Amino acid sequence: MFALCDANSMYASCEKVFDPSIRNKPVVVLTNNDGCICAACGIAKRMGVGKKFVPYFQVKKELEAAGVVIRSSNYELYADLSQRMMDTCARFAPDINVYSIDECFLNYGKEATAPQEGWDNLASTIRKTVWREVRLPICVGIGPTPTLAKVANHAAKNVSGFTGVAVLDNEDTRKHVLKQLAVTDVWGIGMRLGAKLNALGIHTAWELANRDPSQIRKAFSIIVENTVRELNGEVRHCWETVRVAKKEIYSTRSFGNRVTDYDELRAALAGHAETVSVKLRKQKSVTGSMTLFATNSPHDNGGYVRRSFFHRFTVPTNDTRNILNVIDSAMSQLFQSGVYYYKCGVGLMDLHEQGLFQYDLFNSSNDNPRLMACMDNINSRYGRSTVQMAAKGFEQRFSMKRAFLSPQYTTQWRDIPKIKC
């Protein structure tokens, strides 16, 4: 059996944990640079406001009129509360797989028998414990396969008769829920694939579950076949016990304010270079090539400008200093006077596992692993950018715009909640 624990409106719910004054108010959270709506709490959804990915400036007056509380994305807070939620859920199963920032699968094994208190009571206990200890509202769905656990979780949120908990442990319940679930609500079935299934007369999860898996594979893919088999109780989904190393690593972001200065653009690229270097070392890889780009907005009046630069390292590296050195060579091609730069980024490619890479006999590496490890350890313990390269700068006018940012209650000393009693 598998249990899927999923936080309700994760980002908006996190905003309410340490701020009781907004717990009974509609709350929406914005994306990077306060561009679009990315999350809305249940109250906002019931009011019909806070539709996802709508530009904020288009609905600003509507939100103000409805008394909606606006928040910028507070990633530091969300990540910390997510970890607390996962740690709490992990106590209720022998194995856990964190699927995303707001959901995790609990694996009870193929031959798992119902606990003494029953699956429903166990799910309710998990839900109540997360609320009591983390103050995040979650829904719990339990089923014999990961896909059915996803189905159960959807039922716990959206199907009448379920209030935050759903268990598909018998044929009648499975049939009842699958008949009420649109095929596009099944895990892995998107709108485009759903349209093709609709054309074949498959509109519900129940109709998909009753199709011949081998025929579905011929018409679509083995992935859709596995979905059909999982809807019928056959476990086909599995997780890698060791995360596969990435083949490419990128860091890109739009600016909070347009950049027109040479040094500011260089500092922004240096920040991205530092970010990708840390990720590279974390997965114990070295890079053989690197790409950089800088661009303005395609909507600018002066025309669209996109500049890029490619560099191949003589000796693959994961030393931040070597990666930063490339930026000086790239700036002559990337920077153009008079352009209002909107976005830039750095990408590392041609990645190799550090311990297995065969270096050139005549070109020795000048990496300093001990220095890089020292920097990474300090930043891991005391916070990002505690120690950083000077090229990144210290005052960033172009940093991400977060005008409605809430305090980082759990990760910044200055923001620790103060209680007077």
Automatic annotation (TrEMBL):
SUPFAM superfamilies: DNA/RNA polymerases (SSF56672). PROSITE patterns: UMUC. It comes from Paraglaciecola mesophila. Residues 2-190 form the UmuC domain. InterPro entries: DNA/RNA_pol_sf, DNA_pol_Y-fam_little_finger, DNA_polymerase-Y, DUF4113, PolY_HhH_motif, Rev_trsase/Diguanyl_cyclase, UmuC. Belongs to the DNA polymerase type-Y family. Transmembrane segments: none annotated. Keywords: DNA damage, DNA repair, SOS mutagenesis, SOS response. It comes from the Bacteria. This is Y-family DNA polymerase. It holds the Pfam family IMS_HHH.
